Amino acid sequence: MKKFLLILVVVFNYALVHAQELFVFTEPASNMPKGSLGLRITSTVMKEKLENAYNLHLLPELMWGVNKNLMLHAEGFISNRSKSMSAEGFGVYAKYRFLSNDKVHSHFRMAAYGRVSYNNSDIHQEEIEINGHNSGYETGVVATQLLNKVALSSSAGFEKALDNHNYKFPSQQSSSAIDYTFSVGKLMLPKNYTDYKQTNVNLMTEFLGQTLAGNGKSYLDATASVQLIFNSQARFDVGYRQQLYSSMYRSASNGFLIRFEYLFFNAVK
Description:
mainly beta
């Protein structure tokens, strides 16, 4: 825990120089290019608290840049919750950028987002997570500031959990929550741009929190991530998530995220 916090502080201090507006555990206010299609596969490997096992989730995702302001995602949920890898549901995500103040070396953008999900797995924790664990919906607002090459982003949202197919949501638990995030990143390489084919290396740290609306229970996590971007088209992320504190029960709060993403520009006219 102490070593992780030390690494987090180092990443945070470095993140005040050069950054790109891409994050690993959160979405910024900007969208993918108009007419582009994207394929993304996200894997999380989280340590179970009550047993000597790991919780593995796979989220295959198809993304579409409808126009410069609107982006749509469709994703599937696969996990080993039932002791073998099986499909558990799907979700649809949309983000609409409604404010853009662009300048020569900086910009400020805001967007509204929403997600609707269906899930058939058992409800096994107090934490609400529409993206992969709970059926339900979420909505919120995200703001992102780019200063030269420094990217800062923050969001606030509302989540509402519903029954997971045949699993009724426990009446003794809070079914709604407020989410909040803060992200900061730094472009480490290249030091100077000479070609769009140069590989970009980004470091970032993010803080992810939630407060249950019904009883006030909450948690706060910190993350440290490395991101590689190849040919301005392919992206590879590796991040680690560590719980800083929690007053709610969470079955698997600490672990790794690995993601690969590829964009097809001008795929839809």
